[in-house]
Amino acid sequence: MGCNTIAVYIFWNYLETSPGTFDFTSTNHNIAAFIKICHEENMWVLLRPGPYVCAEWDFGGLPPYLLKIPDIKIRCSDERYMSAVTRYVNRLSTEIKPLLCTHGGPVLMVQIENEYGSYANDKSYLEALRKLWLKNGIDVPFYTSDGPTPFMLEAGNIDGTAIGLDSGGSDDDFNEAKKRNASVPSFSSETYPGWLTHWGEHWAKVDTTDILKEVRYLLSHHKSFNLYVVHGGTNFGFTAGANAFSPVQFQPDVTSYDYDAPIDEQGNATPKYYALRHLISQYVSYKIPDVPKPVATIEIPAITLQPFTDIWNNLPQPVYSVQPKPIEDYNQQSGYIIYRTKLTGHKSGKLTITEPHDYALVFLDGKFIDTVYRDGGRWTVDLPATNSPHPQLEILVEAMGHINFGQYMIDRKGITDRVTLNGMTLMNWQVYSLPMNEPFITNLKKQNTNSLSNGIFFKTDFNLNETGDTYFDMSHFKKGVVWVNGHNLGRYWFIGPQQRLYCPASWLKKGSNEVTVFDVLQTNEASIQGMRTLQ
Question: Do 406 and 463 lie in a common domain?
């Protein structure tokens, strides 16, 4: 495209899933190796290590284990939060210090936090972060990123750090940076060629004309800028986050992070890419490299998946709780959880879950009754009368991504308060943690499919003569998760707009492949097929 720098987000919760347990080596956790590849390609690196990054990523990159602390305060000087931050920065610094430009590497700058002026005003916290990086030998320039408004810049920028504007696209924007601090550089730290999409919305589309206008201004005024994002991607597994702008609102992000970006989810150049490339070429003196060839894609004929087993026949050992607790209290980060109790006293009527985070299915004596969705605050279902003297109530809850932006980020999952029946608080629960990790999926036990209840696993094998990227069309299923050869492709939901899940060629193989689908609503066999595009 003609740009010379790669901006790299680092997700703390991806690298430290439990306190003190770091992974910088397996699969794509190797940050240092990636930065070295950037260097080999003659690219500089703008490092965005958090601790908070937003990015429409689960909890904005913060580790959910923090939420096990009942009164934790995040993104501030809370000692318990800062103790965890210190451990993270100390460990990450050993990876990135040799790669700084001051040591001959490609890392030019390090961002302190992210859009902090949109969240809070604890500037002593921001200063503590900078001092922590400096203590660890991170001696490159620092910068902050905030919207180009006076209050955001005052709360989010600290003296001595460059000012990033999200976004900066006019004289007025850069004048606000000058008012904040005229003695430091300013640049557009997030110029938006695309945008995010939530479940139930239309796909976000950003007009190419608008982004060309903004980039033309930046180039003609000799302003540095970072395109957020230049390359879309995928929130594989349970990594997608969510938004909320009121206590009863919940807007989970779709699995795809295609973002209507110049380079699409699969890695192909789009018309928007070529338009930006042509514009940038008019302002640079070097020859821009040729555009790589499109990534190879394949279609896969329809594959019929039969019911294999259900979640009820594959439960782990339960944990006893007087009242339900969030999943984080059971050392779980994401996935599903089941709460089970016997009804004593009231046995039918108005069942209220306060608060369900995020999507719950209610069962009575093994029979599916209704669903409860967090968004909107309508958390009550009618529980019918039964002939059982002590009916068994079960609530299967799906966590759909921790909120990653704004004031409602303390977002514990599962049942976060209590369950009542006609106002009576229900006690004495058996709780089953279901993180749905690869070992769990691999060890599923096949059951007689004549007696399965909602929460069914579908499974089959399919053969390939060649491999390539593909998008699995899930439009014949309803709501759940897909694994291909043990890799979690992410969530699907019939409300859309996303109906196809991206599967890279590296997760497929010639010969036999295995696909597993967990669907909480689908009860009959259904088919999927591989398509060449997201839409």
Answer: no
Sign of CA dihedral 316, 319, 325, 331: negative
Q: Which residue in the block uniquely carries the two structure tokens 């190879």?
A: 296
Please give the C-alpha separations between residue 55 and each of 9, 231, 403, in angstroms, as whole numbers: 8, 13, 11
Q: Among 228, 243, 268, which residue terminates a domain?
A: 228
Domain extent, residue 385, equals 315-434
User: Tell me, what CATH number does 370's domain have?
Assistant: 2.60.120.260
Closest CA to 431 of 455, 454, 443, 415: 415
- Out of 434, 464, 498, pick the residue that ends a domain: 434
Contacts of 159 (CB under 8 A, 6+ apart): 181
Report which of 351, 347, 392 is spatially closest to residue 372, judged by C-alpha positions. 351
Q: For residue 207, what are the contacts with CB-CB under 8 A and spacing of at least 6?
A: none
Query: Which residues lie below 8 Å from residue 310, measured CB to CB, with a gap of 6+?
Result: 447, 452, 453, 454, 455, 456, 457
- 482 plus 373 within the same structural domain: no
Strand partners, 251: 243
Which residues participate in catalysis according to the annotation?
A: 115, 190
The DSSP secondary-structure symbol of 290 reads P
Residues 174-205 pLDDT 10s: 999 999 999 999 999 999 999 999 999 999 99
What are the residues facing 382 on neighbouring strands? 350
Point out which residues pair with 162 in neighbouring strands: 143
- Measured CA to CA in angstroms, residue 344 lies from 360, 370, 387, 388, 427 at distances of 22, 21, 13, 11, 9
The tens digit of pLDDT for each residue in 116-144 reads 999 999 999 999 999 999 999 999 999 99
